[in-house]
Amino acid sequence: CHAYFAALLLLPVLIESVLSISFFLPVNTRKCLREEIHKDVLVTGEYEISEQANTKTNLKITDSSAHTLYSKEDASKGKFAFTTEDYDMFEVCFESKSPMGTGRVPDQLVNLDMKHGVEAKNYEEIAKVEKLKPLEVELRRLEDLSESIVNDFAYMKKREEEMRDTNESTNTRVLYFSIFSMCCLIGLATWQVFYLRRFFKAKKLIE
């Protein structure tokens, strides 16, 4: 029983995505992080950028259609949150700008923590608003996790069906192309036989 409960507690870590990363951003450069996220998923993030004199760092989050989901000029420290409208590839970009030349200003340290799905929800706040007991909060969390698992399996099933349909369509096209190629080869071979027969007869090599 204890092992089963421990497995349940580990499921959010295994299934939900938590991105925590730190990197150095050279002056007058742009670095982007990309991540695929499902539809109707809450995404939250927290960032902190080390301050540097005469340096301005901009943060911009966009989807594959270049729609801006979050934008902050001269960013230093803050939080962001948005809900995805469709399954898409999202891009988080940090861009450093400075009138000073490259190499004359030290790199900035960027810390970024991103969460989505169950991990992004603030269950403590939900418990306060809805006056839930600890056990009810955990049940709500497990309910959301179960829904997330079901949605993931539904998406994987849909992708599997799309890939199967693509494979079947490709196999059908390959079969038709193979039959067409064989017919062309047979027709070419038959024409060649009749052509050589007429040629040899014209040369009176055969009767």
Automatic annotation (TrEMBL):
<feature type="signal peptide">
    <location>
        <begin position="1"/>
        <end position="20"/>
    </location>
</feature>
<protein>
    <recommendedName>
        <fullName>GOLD domain-containing protein</fullName>
    </recommendedName>
</protein>
<feature type="domain" description="GOLD">
    <location>
        <begin position="30"/>
        <end position="181"/>
    </location>
</feature>
<dbReference type="Pfam" id="PF01105">
    <property type="entry name" value="EMP24_GP25L"/>
</dbReference>
<keyword id="KW-1133">Transmembrane helix</keyword>
<comment type="similarity">
    <text>Belongs to the EMP24/GP25L family.</text>
</comment>
<dbReference type="InterPro" id="IPR015720">
    <property type="entry name" value="Emp24-like"/>
</dbReference>
<dbReference type="GO" id="GO:0005789">
    <property type="term" value="C:endoplasmic reticulum membrane"/>
</dbReference>
<keyword id="KW-0812">Transmembrane</keyword>
<keyword id="KW-0472">Membrane</keyword>
<keyword id="KW-0732">Signal</keyword>
<feature type="transmembrane region" description="Helical">
    <location>
        <begin position="174"/>
        <end position="196"/>
    </location>
</feature>
<dbReference type="InterPro" id="IPR009038">
    <property type="entry name" value="GOLD_dom"/>
</dbReference>
<keyword id="KW-0256">Endoplasmic reticulum</keyword>
